[in-house]
Write a structure and sequence with these properties.
The protein is an all-alpha fold and 349 residues long. It contains 13 helices and no strands. Among the domains are: 113-182 and 336-346, Four Helix Bundle (Hemerythrin (Met), subunit A); 184-209 and 254-329.
């Protein structure tokens, strides 16, 4: 864009534009003064703020120091308390260890006393059972063993010890077994053998049957018989009677019985009595085989030499047969199960 010479400003108006210069400098000075005043005011405010911050920091520092002193005091007190607590804990641990040791010793003592009591109980029961078994074997009765088993069962139940439970089971089994067992009656057998000894004294032998059974003259026949006319007739009749007594005709099944003399018959009865007494002694000594053999031998002797038609012979044979049947009954049961359980309990297994 081009301007014309007429439009160009003339140099004359220049002095008129330089006249406001002093007023601008005052404005500038006023602005600078204002800025300086603002800066001074800001500096004052910052100074005051810094002063307040320093005061606050000083107070906080003082509070922090006081708190540090208090914390140090508390830490010292806490340390002393910890040391005191540690000492008390150590003392309590020592006392607790002593109490634990005393408790262990007391438990061991109680276990020892309990074990000793159990051992004494086991020993007493075992001795009672063995004595009852011996008494039962001597008397042939199960009553002593049954009474001992019942007493032992009650004592074990009162003790209430778990380690004696096998003993209690063994006692119950033996009690049931003895209650169901059947054994021979020893007192009854002894009475039967005594009766047999009494019957042996009056036993009639086979060669004596005719003499004891020969008929005798009745008083009527004697009264009706003709009286001997003279003494020589009476002597002849007596001689004839003696001749008739020399010869006897009878049936004897055993040849040995026919050869027995009256003296041998006496010794036969005594030998039979000895057989029965030996059987009695064998029963008392629990020698059942020997007693059974003696009874069998006595029965053979009776059948061989005694009169089978005699009532005493029949009674004696029946008595010997009954005794043999009773002796074939069950043996006297023992207490092995209970004794084994007691031995195991005494050993502590």
């Amino acid at each position: 864009m081009t301007t014309s010479p007429e439009a160009a400003p003339s140099p004359s108006p220049l002095p008129q534009t330089r006249q406001p210069a002093p007023s601008r400098s005052w404005v500038l000075l006023a602005v600078v003064a204002l800025v300086a005043a603002l800066a001074l005011l800001a500096s004052l405010m910052m100074w005051q703020k810094l002063s307040r911050i320093q005061e606050q920091l000083a107070r906080q520092s003082a509070d922090t120091g006081q708190q540090a002193l208090e914390a140090k005091t508390w830490a010292k007190q806490s340390q002393e308390l910890v040391q005191d607590s540690a000492a008390r804990v150590a003392l309590m641990e020592a006392r607790l260890a002593e109490v634990a040791l005393q408790r262990t010793q007391l438990e061991e003592l109680m276990q020892s006393l309990s074990r000793s009591r159990d051992e004494n109980l086991v020993v007493d029961i075992e001795a009672a059972l063995r004595m009852a078994q011996q008494q039962g074997q001597l008397t042939g009765s199960m009553e002593p063993m049954l009474a001992a088993l019942k007493s032992a069962q009650k004592r074990v139940q009162r003790s209430a010890q778990p380690r004696l439970a096998p003993v209690l089971r063994a006692l119950e089994k033996d009690l049931e077994r003895l209650s169901a067992a059947q054994v021979f009656d020893l007192p009854g057998l002894l009475i039967k053998l005594d009766e047999g000894v009494a019957l042996a004294d009056g036993l009639v032998l086979s060669n004596e049957a005719l003499a004891t059974g020969s008929p005798s003259r009745s008083p009527a026949q004697t009264a009706g018989a003709p009286q001997a006319p003279s003494w020589w007739m009476a002597g002849l009749n007596a001689f004839a009677d003696q001749l008739k007594g020399l010869v006897r005709v009878s049936r004897i099944d055993s040849p040995d019985a026919a050869l027995l003399s009256p003296e041998q018959g006496f010794f036969l009865r005594e030998n039979l009595k000895l057989k029965l007494l030996n059987a009695r002694m064998g029963l008392l000594a629990r020698q059942k085989d020997s007693a059974r053999a003696d009874l069998s031998s006595a029965a053979v002797m009776v059948r061989r030499y005694a009169d089978m038609n005699s009532r005493k012979t029949t009674q004696l044979l029946q008595l010997l047969e009954q005794a043999g049947v009773q002796m074939r009954a069950g043996e006297m049961p023992g207490l092995e199960g209970s004794l084994t359980a007691l031995t195991t309990a005494a050993a502590g297994r």
